[in-house]
């Protein structure tokens, strides 16, 4: 099992795109480095060789000058000195006559590769340093002196070849090292990437098989992988929340639909088996129509909320006076408050302009006021207030009823959510969902405060941009 | 009344709905032509003069709004009632509404369909500039904005007066809630609360309270109607 997992990971590593890309880049990079190092090798070796050639040439010129200054005798003396001197150990010297017969120096015979009056040549001399085990490669240059004799100066270039070889080996080793390090780095980075992606893949598969409860494990490194995992996890959380909401809504729709439908069915069934009677039938049909209207109203409310949530209508927003809308709602609901023996007040002296959709705002405010009257105290007092504060348009609706427990605050905007104690009062649990949707559309923040006793609902609407800022966008 | 005054074109592809609409309109004394698809609707709309046409929003292959736009381009100004199951008034329809057309969401009460068709048909009539409206013993003075029954003044708030005025204007006909909201408050939505009923209830208390007979009647599931007893 464990080895299967490891070999699976290895196979994935080998298939990974990261690895393929890395290998391609290592190839390109390696080729460039190899070319560069080859160039370094070429220029280093040619530099070393040209320096040694230069030294030989200088030596030959020096000897020629000695001949010019001191004659053949002086030259012979110098050559003798050089051959005996330890410091010129690797030097090669030979003075030969016009027919290349040796006169002085540390070579027994004139090298056959050198002929004519001057030039360069590489050769192996058996007789040079007879004590040496391996016959070294020599390189020399020669010139013809004015008296027709030939003067040769050179040196053992085996040292140079050895040095160049060392450079060659060092460079080859470094290329090899680069490839090895790059290869190891690639495989380890790829394995790490593949490992993290595999964790995400495994979670995705688990989610597809078992549902949204799974989360991608974090390693606590706070690197980009952890960030990705954290983001994916919070996305999953949001989806899970939405799914739960959808499920809850579906269940509620099913439940809230079934109840009136079952009622209607029962009534129809009873009426079907009963002898017909005009008055009875008429009241039955009337009741059925009312029930059906309730179901249809619930559907339109649901559709309305979902359309508010899904269609961006901010483009159709106009400047509306929130104070005026609230006043109209209050005027409409005055009668409803009166019916309950209560009082409905409005405090909105100044016009408060926001950008919005009048119909939607009206409906939302109407729902809030309706709630405040319906769930407020019998003969209670509801106050609606519209003000401007902290750069926001603030609409608050306060009642003195029994309020909403603070642990329920977050739930009341859910579709079909109803407080336990309100199960019996009329309503379908969609009013505040509509308020929530309208508030979101208008970018408004909702606040619920304990009014002790009662509840204050406060909506903070953003104020429209000042006229000066607008004129920049829409020049006259 | 001209020949075209009571003639209505119904463009509806669903057989049963079409039959129901034609039935209820015929019962109300309208002469009804039925078109079962968009092309038929266009041809009929072009060839004859109708008082009103009702057009289904979603016909096979064509949007009802497109038919209306086609007819408007040809200079045909017959008011149209768009009937739709889409449920929400979108911007295209809003544009048409401004041009004198109306909108009704499926499913609807036939009383509401009739009320809206009546309202559209009346638009082409010459408006009689009456300054005093009377129903039974109720008198509305549109100039002084006062109401009285049997000569006794009734105190109404300005908005309450508007509600009563609209109902009395439509005497004998059903005024659906949404139409009332649209005309008196200039709002285009179906209220999710029963607030219109409560509001009209108060107007009714003021107008009908302690009177010989009621004038404002509730039409269950649809709206209200003002009529005097025969």
Oligomer: heterodimer
Supply the number of helical segments of chain B: 8
The CATH superfamily of the domain at 316-473 in chain A appears as Histidine kinase-like ATPase, C-terminal domain
CATH architecture of the largest domain in chain B: 3-Layer(aba) Sandwich
What overall geometry of chain B do the principal axes of the alpha carbons give? elongated
Arithmetic mean pLDDT of chain B: 83
Widest beta sheet: strand line-up of chain A: 2-1-5-4-3
Q: In percent, how much strand structure appears in the residues of chain A?
A: 15-25%
User: Which architecture of the domain at 316-473 in chain A does the CATH hierarchy give at level 2?
Assistant: 2-Layer Sandwich
Number of domains of chain B: 2
CATH fold call of the domain at 316-473 in chain A: Heat Shock Protein 90
Q: Biggest chain pair contact, residues each?
A: A-B, 32 and 23 residues
Q: Which geometry of chain A do the CA atoms define? A: rod-shaped
CATH class wording of the largest domain in chain B = Alpha Beta
Largest sheet of chain B: 5 strands, parallel
**Helix fraction bin of chain A:** 55-70%
Give the DSSP E fraction of chain B (strand runs of 2 or more residues).
Answer: 15-25%
- SSE pattern of chain B, N- to C-terminal: EHEHEEEHEHEHEEEEHEHHEE
Radius of gyration of chain B, whole Å: 19 Å
Q: Please tally the β strands of chain B and state the result.
A: 14
């Amino acid at each position: 099992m464990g080895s299967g997992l490891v070999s699976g990971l290895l196979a994935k590593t080998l298939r990974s795109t990261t690895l393929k890309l890395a290998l391609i880049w290592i190839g390109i990079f390696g080729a460039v480095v190899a070319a560069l190092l080859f160039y370094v090798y070429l220029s280093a070796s040619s530099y070393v060789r040209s320096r040694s050639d230069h030294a030989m040439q200088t030596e030959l010129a020096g000897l020629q000058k000695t001949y010019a200054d001191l004659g053949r005798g002086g030259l012979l003396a110098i050559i003798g000195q050089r051959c005996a001197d330890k410091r010129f150990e690797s030097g090669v010297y030979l003075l030969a006559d016009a027919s290349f017969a040796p006169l002085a120096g540390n070579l027994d015979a004139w090298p056959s590769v050198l002929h004519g009056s001057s030039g360069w040549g590489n050769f192996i001399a058996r007789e040079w340093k007879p004590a040496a085990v391996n016959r070294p490669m020599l390189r020399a240059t020669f010139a013809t002196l004015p008296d027709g004799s030939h003067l040769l100066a050179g040196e053992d270039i085996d040292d140079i070849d050895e040095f160049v070889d060392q450079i060659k080996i060092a460079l080859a080793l470094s290329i090899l090292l680069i490839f090895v390090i790059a290869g190891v780095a690639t495989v380890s980075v790829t394995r790490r990437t593949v490992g993290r992606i595999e964790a995400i893949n495994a979670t995705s598969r688990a989610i597809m098989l078992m549902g949204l409860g799974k989360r991608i494990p974090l390693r606590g490194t706070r690197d980009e992988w952890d960030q990705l995992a954290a983001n994916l996890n919070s996305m999953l959380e949001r989806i899970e929340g939405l799914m739960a909401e959808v499920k809850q809504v579906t269940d509620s729709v099913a439940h809230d639909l079934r109840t009136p439908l079952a009622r209607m069915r029962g009534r129809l069934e009873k009426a079907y088996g009963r002898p017909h009677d005009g008055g009875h039938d008429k009241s039955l049909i009337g009741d059925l129509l009312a029930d059906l209207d309730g179901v249809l109203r619930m559907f339109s409310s649901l559709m309305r909320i979902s359309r508010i949530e899904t269609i961006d209508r901010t483009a159709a927003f106009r400047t509306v006076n929130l104070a005026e809308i609230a006043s109209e709602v209050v005027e409409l609901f005055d009668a409803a408050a009166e019916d309950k023996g209560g009082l409905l007040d409005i405090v909105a002296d100044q016009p408060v302009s926001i950008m919005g959709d009048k119909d939607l705002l009206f409906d939302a405010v109407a729902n809030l006021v309706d709630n405040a009257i319906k769930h407020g105290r019998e003969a209670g007092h509801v106050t609606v207030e519209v003000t401007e504060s902290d750069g926001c348009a603030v609409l608050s609706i306060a009642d003195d009823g029994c309020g909403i427990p603070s642990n329920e605050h977050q739930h009341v905007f859910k579709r079909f959510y109803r407080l336990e104690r309100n199960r019996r009062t009329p309503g379908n649990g969609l009013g505040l969902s509509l308020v929530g949707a309208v508030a979101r559309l208008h970018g408004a923040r909702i606040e619920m405060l304990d009014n002790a006793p009662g509840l204050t609902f406060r909506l903070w609407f953003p104020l429209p941009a000042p006229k000066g800022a607008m004129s920049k966008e829409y020049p006259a | 009344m001209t020949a075209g005054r009571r003639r209505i074109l119904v463009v509806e592809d669903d057989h049963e709905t079409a039959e129901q609409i034609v039935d209820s309109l015929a019962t109300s004394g309208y002469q009804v032509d039925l078109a079962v698809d968009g092309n038929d609707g266009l041809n009929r709309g072009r060839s004859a003069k109708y008082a009103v046409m009702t057009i289904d929003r979603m016909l096979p292959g064509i949007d009802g709004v497109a038919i209306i736009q086609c007819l408007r381009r040809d200079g045909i100004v017959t008011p149209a009632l768009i009937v739709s199951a889409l449920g929400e008034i979108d911007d295209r329809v809003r544009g048409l509404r401004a041009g004198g057309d109306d909108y009704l969401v499926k499913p609807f009460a036939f009383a509401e369909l009739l009320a809206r068709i009546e309202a559209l048909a009346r638009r082409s009539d010459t408006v009689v500039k009456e300054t005093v409206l009377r129903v039974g013993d109720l008198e509305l003075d549109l100039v002084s904005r006062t109401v009285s029954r049997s000569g006794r003044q009734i105190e109404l708030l300005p908005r309450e007066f508007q509600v009563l005025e609209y109902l009395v204007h439509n005497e004998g006909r059903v005024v659906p809630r949404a139409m009332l909201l649209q005309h008196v408050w200039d709002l285009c939505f179906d209220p999710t609360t029963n607030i219109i009923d409560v509001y009209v209830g108060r107007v009714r208390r003021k107008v009908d309270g302690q009177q010989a007979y009621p004038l404002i009647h509730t039409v269950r599931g649809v709206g209200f109607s003002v009529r005097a007893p025969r």
